[in-house]
Model the fold of this input.
Amino acid sequence: MQRIPEPELMEDMAQAEAYDRADFSAAHSARVELFAARYGREITGSVLDLGCGSGDILERFAKKYPQAQFVGVDGSFAMLELSRRRMMRAEISERMDFIEALIPSKDIPLEDYEVVMSHSLLHQLHHPEVLWQTIADVAPKGSFIFVGDLRRPESAADAQAIVDRLSPNEPAVLRTDFFNSLCAAFTKEEIEAQLKDAGLMLTVEEVGEIHILVYGVKR
Ligand SMILES: C[S@@+](CC[C@H](N)C(=O)[O-])C[C@H]1O[C@@H](n2cnc3c(N)ncnc32)[C@H](O)[C@@H]1O
Done:
């Protein structure tokens, strides 16, 4: 099926709070473990998270990697506000910096990042090349890139069947969001073409029924 893009930013506080309240714990814990299995060592430097949202994955990374420092970037003030509050509650805000920036942006600090990651941002972008170009620009040579997202099913009917099977009891608004996100996601072939255009040599791996990972060392 053809891709159907979603609105990019989650700017509205009510929408941001609904997303923040949703229980993504299984998928988000699994994401940290997928990273750990591919990175295979401690993080002792800094991690850049592009499109950090309300910070649930960021918090899980911070707890798994207590020596790491984090920079979270998001274009939505509402999402960043939720992220800041979350880190205060978890008492890890001293290891966090947040930057409000709409990618592509010159406001992303250029640091010697050990890891540059992004979760569930790619499918929201109307111009996916901005993510890959940003990574090409800000990730230092030798840093580890890790991008995770949904992948698009073959048809709208398949997308609906996935929503019905995996989220039968979620509120209607979250079921609709999930369906729209599946329809807005990219396929493995599309992502491989995007990487080629950006000059990034990374592995693209389909994981489970609905996810896709892009990772590797920046050359
Ligand atoms: C689906 S949420 C994912 C949040 C978080 N990474 C997670 O996995 O829970 C996507 C986030 O990307 C942000 N976003 C979308 N387009 C963006 C852009 N061009 N620049 C910066 N942030 C963007 C949205 O505001 C939202 O917080």
